[in-house]
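Input for the complex:
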Amino acid sequence: MTQANKITGAEIVIKALIDQGVDTVFGYPGGAILPIYDELFQQKKIKHILVRHEQAATHAAEGYARSTGKTGVVFVTSGPGATNSVTGLTDALMDSVPIVVISGQVPTFMIGNDAFQEADTVGITRPCTKHNWLVKDTNKLAETIHQAFEVASSGRPGPVLVDVPKDVQFATGQYIMKNEIYKGFVKKDPSIDLDMLDEVISRLEMAERPIIYSGGGVINSGQSAVNSLRNLVAGTNFPITSTLMGLGSYPASGKNWLGMLGMHGTYEANMSMHDCDFMLCIGARFDDRITGRIDAFSPDSYKVHIDIDPSSINKNITVEAPLIGDVSYILSALITRWKERGSKVNKKKLTTWWKSINDWKGVKSLGYENSSKVIKPQYAVQRLEELTKSYNRFVSTEVGQHQMWAAQFMGFEEPNRWMTSGGLGTMGYGFPASIGIQIAHPTSLVINVAGEASWLMNMQELGTAVQYRLPVKQFILNNERLGMVRQWQELLHGERYSHSWSDALPDFVKLAEAYGIKGIRCEDPANLDDSIKEMIEYQGPVIFDCLVEKHENCFPMIPSGRAHNEMILGEQTEENTISDDGAVLV
Amino acid sequence: MSLKLKKGVNKQSAYNLRDPNLDYEAAHTLSIIVDNESGVLARVIGLFSGRGYNIDSLTVAEVDPSGHKSRITIVTTGTPKVVNQIKAQLNRMVPVHEVIDLTLKGKAVQRELAIFKVVGNGNQRVESLRLADVFRAKVVDSTLKSFTFELTGNSEKIDAFAELMEPLGLQEIARTGIVALLRGDKSS
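Predicted:
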């Protein structure tokens, strides 16, 4: 190795990213990452999006990653830059989103000295990344970055962080290409258990009351998994429900679709989960928002769990048949074997099952009382859905009631169209995510369905949207409350609304105008359609301040500590529904 | 606590088929082969503390210098479900190569090394020396008032020796925690 073919660490970083096919980086410069920013300045292949806060960079990268299936990339500086990325890393870990964060660090000889803007970044981010590295030798830098991409995107995807001290960025070292790295660290999928597969298929063939419950793993697995899922549903005529993360893997217009399940899922989805005798869980993880009370969760069913992560098996719910591996691989093996055995299902019983399901559908659990005087939030989301569904559309959300209403009332026909913070429930996710999505899909209609409280958490990103001319539509359901907190206080804490309203909201229209973009306010249901159309047609970012009913609750709801068949459907039945045991749950 | 289920509908329930031993907590000795890189022990310990698992004993040292591999031996207590979770979570970690549950895998040799400082006079000294002989403990340091014993064995043996030394002037103990390997000619 001669000195001649050595390049600086900063050059290595940029070269490795280009080698990985990265076209966009979200970030914020600072002292310890300046050499990398200097290299960034001197090239044209990677576009850098300057955010206004590092947390927003990580969410934007998540939005970018989830809407494209690629890995999102973030640059942050040491100390506060790195600590600000922690929420986004944790969010990505919970929702299995592949992102690579490259953080600057104080020079190696100053580490441990409480230097300016020093933080133990790998220590802080250890529990909120899939893996992280502190690179102390420039010769290891290229290999580490390539490994980081491999770890982030392989298996169950997730966030990783590479901490690069400033002296390592300045020093020179050898570059290696991504195909030259050692990949022994990538966990291999176990081979499929064929006996188990046959057992599952015979159960599937006999099933009297089957249900397919799919999750984000199907979307992460890719288009072939989505196709297999759709083929399986079409072939078996089994009903299907999805988690919040799984929306879009089966089209909302499909005839077997029951809507989302779980705490705010539909009555038909949750009752089917409770009463089924065969449950096929595909790429979901029996989260507490899904199961309700664990010991009363789907008591009569034979449960099959397809998951790439062995630690998801039997974590919350004990299943009879775990099938570990990539959804796409397992599903295609399952479908092939099922077809070989004659594509059998228990048609007669299935007809009876569908009859019960259709009875449950008749309950119309998403019903609400509309008003001609005030905009009901559900109505606002319904109209938004109606007026935008024909567009090439991507939707992100913040976290809270509006998120649940969006999940209930918006229909997704394709995967990767719906970006929301599911596992971590990060308020402030949606706006920066919409920025990341719009960067990846410049000509698409990108809408962030928001609540005003969540939206304010990352409102500084208005600057980013304006600077890069991103026509993101911020559809804010403004109830001047922390809606979901308020709802829980009403149901659980004797209507004592402790700090769940904001007494000093900005004038959102003027706020938009201050940034030179469009603000629309709508408070009359009669004007809603025209206002939404105005928002869609405007060529630029819009803040849509939709003033809605202030005390609307989100139903249906499985109260904490209750089972799927103990859902409450509306206001009239909610008295005393949460037991003392349930009250301690989140 | 009633489940509010219809009568007779749950004869195939997974709930009723649950293994009655499922809630039985047992100690498991896990042998974990990891890359000997900085932070790897913190990752493993962080997993245990972050997810609320127990660590009864932990030892770590490099065992393959050329391959930069260390062996971590952890004794943990939990129900079968929890222990399975622990193993699955450990296996997810990038620097973890192998997790072997020695308790399930078969018979394992489990040893601990302990050093005891016993201070006393006259008969106490004689008695401690005699017991040390019975336990095959070695005297590794001594003064006119004290003996320092080194003892290797399973944890019960070390506990027993400590109990006997207590009335004879036991002042301090240092224990390594358990190291273990599978018995027989196969590597674990």
